[in-house]
Amino acid sequence: MSDFRRMLSPIVSRIQAMIGRAILSAVSDAGGMQVVKVSGLSGEVIDKLDHPQPFGFTANCPTGGQAVVAFVGGSRDQGIVLVVDHTAHRKKNLKAGESAVYSSQGTYVYLKEDGTIEIETNGSEVKILGRTVSTETIHSDKDVEAAGDVSDSVGKLDKVRDDLASLKLAYDAHVHSCSAPGLISGPAIAP
Fold first, then answer.
1. In this structure, what CATH number is given to the domain that contains residue 78?
2. Which region, left, alpha or beta, applies to residue 90 given φ > 0 means left and ψ of -120 to 50 means alpha?
């Protein structure tokens, strides 16, 4: 080996060690910065690596995910996890320009190319915290249930409520006159 190559050898090794692939083996998500443990080449275990999250988004990838790790100056004690993916759970076949947020349980929010927002909950409830959900019209191809009062700002529901109350009063007060024995006459009785 030439003297020049011998001089460059440590530099080349450090450059080659700057970026690596790894398998996620543990995650600590309790602190301000997510900290992970990965298995690198030849079973190398690298612990306490910072995994910064993009502002406004955070995730806790299941173990077994694939990670890309950068090592500052090629030093194994200066590592940072750039990205983690888990191909078994990732939503696939998105068109150009589409995005999705997904979980390992198959739930997702999918922003589609045509402007549709598709939400899959796998039967779980959707909780909207706060006071107001604004929309022009709500359409449902299934039943709509409300645990509390339903109201509106223009009084249409008040009119419906008054009309229903009037109908109930009229129904309860109506009397059948009949002369057949055994038939009940008077207000209708609900079963």
1. 2.40.50.140
2. beta
